[in-house]
Amino acid sequence: MQPKEVNRILQTLKPYVQLKKQHIKLGLKIIDKLSKVSDANSFLELCRMVDSFKILNYSTNRTITSEVVEKFLKENNLLTPVETSSVKDEILSIKRKNNTPVAFPARKG
């Protein structure tokens, strides 16, 4: 399925969704950023945004996380230093709105 189609579906569902509003908002942001991925750093930032679904869902089953992607990119010298606080700020904002505790995994490497 193309990102344009996913965007259309999420936009269609958005007015009707009550319990997963933050999921739709995050999904739309991810789709928007997907077309702007131009290098390893922007790809890694997108991976971190996807990881934030784990926080919204309390999911622990995913095995390919942004940490796994970051490790691969570093091992292959594809990553340059970049500040990622914007992603953490986004997650904190979502969690504060939901009055949910926030825990970020420790960065490895």
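[next item in queue]
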Amino acid sequence: MATEIAFLSVYSHGDPLDRHRGHHPPPNPYHSGETLANTYIFRPLQEGKYPDDRTSVVGQTHVDLLETLLSQPGCQRCYWGREVENKDMLRWFVDWDSIDSHKKFIASE
């Protein structure tokens, strides 16, 4: 059985590497000069149990998780979806205003 994979990416707004690649992130109105953080989560799903149907138990649980996450201090936004090639793989992308906000969330219960 596949397991969940999660990792954290951090970057500073205006990173020279981003400019070198021709990528200019949009200005973040919440950015205070701290290092921003992104969390990426890849989670395998049981076949036929997808969060897309919000009326199902799995769908409602997913909505509850998103609402909890988005209510955390420092959580800017959350994107999610299933892979096109593998509908049984869920991907979450969470943007934090700082690495400290991410760490506080991870340390909380």
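[queue empty]
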